[in-house]
Amino acid sequence: MTVPCVRVRPQAGEATRQALAERDLLAEAYDITVADGWLYLPVADADAVPAEYEVVPFDAERRQTHTLPADILGFEPSLERLGRIVVLDEDDDARAREIADAVMASDLPCDTVVNRASKVKGEYRVREWDVLAGNGTETVHTEYGTEFLLDIAEVYFSPRLATERHRVVEQVEADEHAFDMFAGVGPFAVPMAKRGTDVVACDLNPVAVEYLRGNAERNGVAERVTAREGDVREIATDYEGWADRVVANLPHSASAFADTAVALAGDDCVVHLYDIQHEDDPFAAGKRALREAAGEEYEVRTETERVVRSYAPHEVNVCLDARLVRR
């Protein structure tokens, strides 16, 4: 049957599927299909699909043999998939366990079901989990063709930011010097290195740094990624004036590290500064922090102001792309 489908290349398939699923746009009654080098993801409402995606008519097959959690439960649960882990965010323990049982009984490719048990907290920005089914919190997550091994109980990782990370990575050119100030397991650093860039990536969390090194090896770019454990303000002293690109992804706090980002910048450097601010004027704080840190040494040009996602009522997660040009 001909249905509207988002058409993407297969390497972008999982990230696109997640983005559409977050908006409840996937037409679950039809199969996701690969044809002629493209992946076709059936959607329930073509008009609601974000403009960044291409929507085309496609003859998709109805699903015949896949049993989904909704088929068992009688309602559509809210799920997030990270590799072979299914993540729930349920306040009711009984409902969470009912959903977990249905997920494990369904045909979803899943090894473990967890429920969020705390907010992100601590200097390593990790959260607690209730493991409802299965027995492991380590998984391999694929994002735009790059594999990441990680343990969600030990490191911070948000699959919801896949599209935003890809946007930044697509700007990277071969032979750049890129510095990832808060690298985690490498979702910025590793794909940037795959584009031929030399990357220095640091993180306070020693477990995250070990996964980062392993993920660079797993994706064949270990020679291009220098992984450093520790406070970026200290590590940056070894790389002053080195970077053509800086990623500062520590919402709520990144503006406090603007002086470090500027210290890393070479003569012409793009800084991707992430922040969480009130929706009325979400970019002002980041701009002000960069301009104050740059002083008279750099001209600061705003290239992109992007709202990444809603974070809380009247608060948004944003990215400011700013170019620093030495005067």
Describe it for me?
It comes from Halosegnis marinus. This is Class I SAM-dependent methyltransferase. InterPro entries: MeTrfase_TRM5/TYW2, SAM-dependent_MTases_sf, TRM5-TYW2-like_MTfase, TRM5/TYW2-like_N, Trm5a/b_N. GO terms for molecular function: methyltransferase activity. Keywords: Cytoplasm, Methyltransferase, S-adenosyl-L-methionine, Transferase, tRNA processing. By secondary structure, the chain is of the alpha/beta class. It has three domains: 2-59, Alpha-Beta Plaits (2-Layer Sandwich); 69-136, GMP Synthetase, Chain A, domain 3; 160-326, 3-Layer(aba) Sandwich (Rossmann fold), CATH 3.40.50. The chain is built from nine helices and 17 strands. It has helices spanning 13-22, 69-73, 93-105, 162-169, 189-194, 206-218, 232-235, 258-264, 284-294, and strands at residues 2-8, 33-35, 38-42, 54-59, 80-82, 85-88, 112-116, 129-133, 138-143, 146-151, 177-180, 198-203, 225-229, 243-248, 265-278, 298-312, 315-326. It has a seven-stranded mixed β-sheet with strand order 13-12-11-14-15-17-16. Strand 6, helix 3 and strand 7 (112-116) form a beta-alpha-beta unit. Helix 8 crosses helix 9. It is globular and about 65 Å long. The mean pLDDT is 93.
